[in-house]
Sequence to fold (803 residues):
Amino acid sequence: MKRMGSGDTTFVRPALLSALLATTMFTGVSAAFAQDTNGELETVVVTAEKRTENLQNVPMNVTAITSEKLEQLHLTDFTEFALYMPSVEFAVSGQGSNGGPGFSNVTMRGIASDQNGNHSGPLPPVGVYLDEQPITTINGTLDVPTYDLERVEALSGPQGTLYGASSEAGTIRIITNKPDTSGFAASYSVDGNSVDHGGLGYTADGMVNIPLSDNVAIRIVAWDEHDAGYINNVYGTMTFPSSGITINNAATAKKDYNTVDKLGGRVALKIDLDNNWTITPVLMGQREDTNGFFGYNPLIGDLDVTHFMPEYVRDDWYSAALTIQGKIGNVDLLYSGGYMSRTIDSQADYADYSFWYDTLYSYGKYITNNSGALIDPQQYIDGKDHFTKQNHEFRIETSKDSSLRLTAGAYYGDETHAILQDYKVNGLRTSPLLVGGVPDYSYFFTVPGWTNTLWLTDQFREDQDYAVFGELAYDILPNLTLTGGIRFFEDNNSLKGFFGLGRNAMLTSAGGPGLCFSQTPIYNNGPCTDLDADVKDHGETHKINLTWHIDDDRMVYATYSTGFRPGGVNRVTGFPPYAPDTLTNYELGWKTSWDDNRLRVNGAVYWENWNNFQFPFLGPNSVTVIVDGGQATVKGSEFDVSWLPIDSLTLTASGAYNDAQLSQDYCGVVGTTSCPGTAEAPKGTQLPITPKWKINATARYDFTVAGIKAHVEGSAVHESGEWPDLRIEQRSILGESQPFSTFDFNTGIDEDNWALELYIQNLTDERAQLGRFAECTPQTCGVDTYILPSQPRTIGLRFSQKF
Fold:
């Protein structure tokens, strides 16, 4: 038994972006491999504290992957560069999605309770920013390509004072290259690759930077990418026990069917009004079409599934941002505003749910057509999601040369999500079955007004955030600085509309017409209204940091900081709203350089208390429920080492250890911390998603052959095992993701304005398990546990040029 294939929607490339890409390929360049010319490690500049600083002077643990490193390691999207960020993990929820790009939910330092990324679930614990613009959404992180990025930063630990609600456990910042008025520049790169057990892929990128005058420049970037598939939808059948109806997937079976096509671009304009004021508007957008499913079922075979209905995701998004920077006297002022719109049109196979509910609960015998005959009971999900996100921040910063420095500001954010999840059974009857002239409500029928719809979610969600914040730093001594920060916030979560079955919903606590309190739809096209609720919270977060610069090359710091995540509304009757959760962090860290900056050793140790954490899980009818799970503790450490033993050899390594576990029993009963019976997860249980160990290392050797510069480079990533769920019973069903080690290799030459490189990713073809999930409640569908694998061994060739 099992599942299906690919959507057949034609992928149309907009003419404007195709023309732009062609233009940049004929006038452009890829960034050259930067070589150190001073016999020391390069200086990495970051803006983690919302001011430009040398990474070695920032008193927090920041992992920064520069544009050079992104290119050298061939890290093209979030799931790839996250492997090289030791404290960063991600989970992909399989329910209602295909497990592909754009559905990654980010976690840091073990602050994770479940992989469920449901539309009506809690906000993420990690904020993701594109420059100054927050781009975090409930269902997953935008799949932003890494071409022409300046760097990616991972800020570990609570960032509540400067970054707010969605940065409880940390923040990811994606920093783009800005227009440059100093001169013309252009680049392009083309890449072809072959995936073992899969197909062929390609990438074409281009950039052009054009000064329009002495004080105005424009930067245009475009990309076109096709990722080869490697999951096979193999032929199979499924027989439903209640009716004996057998289906097959002959129409949708296909080899290598999980393909991805991306087409997008970015346009940025920089206007220097005078020596003090600059305006930078940026417009960025992407269309991403994914087909198939990105996990495999080991019961079917390696990299194999058997799915029955078409599966696809059409993910279109754009963001428009405006930054105004200026100076009045010694005070820097900044306004940043942005608007993002994201539309997802998807279809997902849901045959697992149908089969196992029929097998265990005889679900299929209640699925009939209008004639009363039993029909194929398999479900599929049509989804239409529309996100909007706007943000406005005003910030001031006093002179960094003063012994007393202030960063302060005000913030407003508003995120909306129009949710349509239409669970369909083709041919489902449209009214109650009459037995002896009396309606028999044990039989399913469509949601009123919705053809073939067995279950409907038609809701509107809004999350608002208001805040004022400030950080004050004072140099007690020239080498001893005390910093204090606070953020006052108010947030509001609201959810309204309709959700539930068409049949007599008084039989379930999940919703439906029988529980509607108004026959007038409050939102969109639902048959009536059974949900209209909101929750408001307010409070503050804090930060205290003491930094001691022992000398110009060595610094130690101690930090106390807090973070928070807003509460929200539970849809399911009988479950109260879930409360905010908070994180308290105690951290000691160090930044050191040795041997004339040829050796750099950075690290941190920390203790974090996660209070009243939000735990989402699949409850009645596999509907997401969020409860306040109790307390958890994380004891961990992070390190980052870079060494230049000789001028031509660079060695780097970084890693993290996170002992994240419950500090009290999780009972599984709302509002109960003292379990009357066996705890669903006892004290000491390892939190899910995060491995205890995550380590990476890279060695790069640069040399010259016949006057041509060349290099060889090897990288390794190791992760220990992790669990997909908090609860013990669910773990026993889904299983543990096993430890893995992957190896990458590349070699190439570059001469004058061009470079050619051969690379191999996942050299040993390791089947790294990046996640495990079932399509519904594990006790029901867990027999069919899917594994989300890393991409198999990939061999590619890339050519780039600059002018």
